Fold this protein.
Amino acid sequence: MSPFISLKRQRGVGLIELMVSVTIGLLIMAGVVQLYLTSVESQRSQEGLSRIQENLRFTSNRLNDEGSSSGFLGCLPRLDDETRVINLLTEDIGLDADGTPQAANFASSISGRDGSGINGTDEVFFRFALPRSIPLAEDFNPQSDDELTLDTSPHFKFAYDAINKWDVAVLTNCNYAVVFMVTNNPNDNGVVRLKVGPKAPNSHPNAGQKNTTTNIDYPLTGLKNTDNKGQIRARLFLAGMGGYSYEVKLSESAKETNNQGGSAQCDADHPQYCGLFRNGQEIIDGVVDFQVEYGWREGNLVNFGNASTVAASDRWNRVDRVRMDLTLSAIELTGTNDNSSTKRIQREMSQVIMLKNPVVEL
């Protein structure tokens, strides 16, 4: 075969073929990139939704547990008689309409404030003693004594060891309940002191609170009293912080950003900087809105109203249910159109909580 004929038959890739090949390659690459971006966006959306759902479950359980426990004061029934609850804590820390402190106003098991939080969000207060209790060993006469002697036998030692200075406690004999602050560090002798002042330090959750009086008009009977004439022996119930407040505030991550020179703010366009706080401590972030209404019965009808309505109607002691509406947002950008202004997934939760200890009308 002639070498010239062989050369004529050897052909390379033409320009048209090359352009077609590059175009096809680019189309395939674009599809791969688009598939990758879609996968990443889907993963972000799924992670954001999962986090919201987890926060919703956590918040729902916490609010339900503490909200439904509101009003528990040991064996004292919730009667329509505020004189049965003797509140020695009257320091001005977030006042109710009647001037008593919201954090420890056990005369009312629940209360709130409208629009007191960021972006017009509400604040709600739940009050209840913890189920752990310790019997009073010796009689207590507040007119002549400032020490409560409690039973520290092995059965109650665990509960006694849980008492700390500045804790709120409830002493009740089923007819009356005395709410006060522990003013000493309890030790093995079983003594808890009840003195006027000083205030709890700023580092404590009960900061600023104190006993402003020890004026109790009747003695309380202890276990060792063998001549109690049918009186019920008193028990001390732990209450820790006394009341539990929930409100929306600037999140801790936003504060950290601002401390580094940023300008983070909690609003509808920046939900990632909003947090739901329990007694001043953040429990979840991304809470866009928090609205609370309170329900009470009038005959066979159930009325709902905000805190101002309840206060104006003088029905705080009649509230037997709470309706809370929350809007939660994902922290990370998800690229979804759930919220066109923030590009973050948002979900709403509405929950009605029934109080286990409603007030009984006398």
Q: What stands out?
A: The radius of gyration is 31 Å. Helices lie at 3-9, 15-68, 154-161, 252-259, 307-313.
